[in-house]
Amino acid sequence: MANVAFLGTGMMGSGMVEAMLRRGEAVAVWNRTESKARALEPLGAKVAASPADAVTAADRVHLMLPDDAVVDRILEQSLPRVRRDAVVIDHSTTSPRGTKARIERLQKSGVSFLHAPVFMSPQMTRDAVGLMMVSGPRQVYDAVGSVLEKMTGEVWYLGERGDLAAAYKLFGNSMLFVLTGGIADVFAMAKANGIEPADALTVFDKFPVGNFIKLRGEKMARRDFSATFELTMARKDTRLMLEAADGQPLTVLPGIAKRMDDAIASGHGKDDLGAIAAEVLR
User: Fold this and answer.
1) Do 47 and 147 lie in a common domain?
2) Co-location of 122 and 42 in the same domain
3) Is the sign of the CA dihedral 30, 143, 130, 173 positive or negative?
4) Could you tell me if 256 and 214 lie in one domain?
5) Which structural domain range is residue 240 located in?
6) Contact 271, 219 (CB under 8 A)
7) Does one domain contain both 21 and 91?
8) What is the pLDDT of residue 1?
9) Element (H, E) at 17
10) How many structural domains are present in the chain?
11) Partners of residue 154 on adjacent β-strands
12) 10-residue averages of pLDDT along the chain (282 residues)
């Protein structure tokens, strides 16, 4: 039976701990708000008074913390007590630059460290389904890969480039946020035109947009701006959307309109809508 330390038992971390306990692992937990760690005690978790106390006997140390600064602070507090043969696995959403520096710094100190952020909901962590992305040394990944596979539906090892999992996590979350903002703008237009939000969403039963990322994204990645939807016409449609909202607060459309205006001013008016990315793809 593996001895595990888990630092950070919020919604995501607590779900991971619950699944570990069901698999028969011995888990010592720590959380800044102690009550969140104590909630796992009836399930079999041992609550530690500090990060350092939690990691002392651990074969693996897992972290799920809010940001780079907290990760660095908790590592600083706990690493002196981490066993030399233990593996430290950080599931936190952190910056690519900060993660790369962290991996390089810990490697020089002889710490076996992986960055392994996830695309999972709290319930998915309990059910051990979803996607986990991993960056870090191959030999470290090989040592714990089978364990990580038990935590999720799929583990995607991205290689030894330290910042890649962090970057991919931000790519995925950015698309979630943009889509959520787009839905909010649809609701704004719907409200201005006396249409219920649920009725507005029925458009997407008939007009699925799920393939758009792959089809248009691949065309843009090739820097192929031959027009299938001319940018000037897309900008006209955006104007109609702004007008249709009739003063309701909008989330993403104003920013898109501004970017279209900039691209048209740079000579891309006859190019494809995807030319709004021309500047960053040069």
Assistant:
1) yes
2) yes
3) positive
4) yes
5) 168-281
6) no
7) yes
8) 72
9) helix 11-22
10) 2
11) 131
12) 94 98 97 97 97 97 98 97 97 97 94 98 97 97 97 97 97 96 98 98 92 91 97 98 98 98 98 97 92
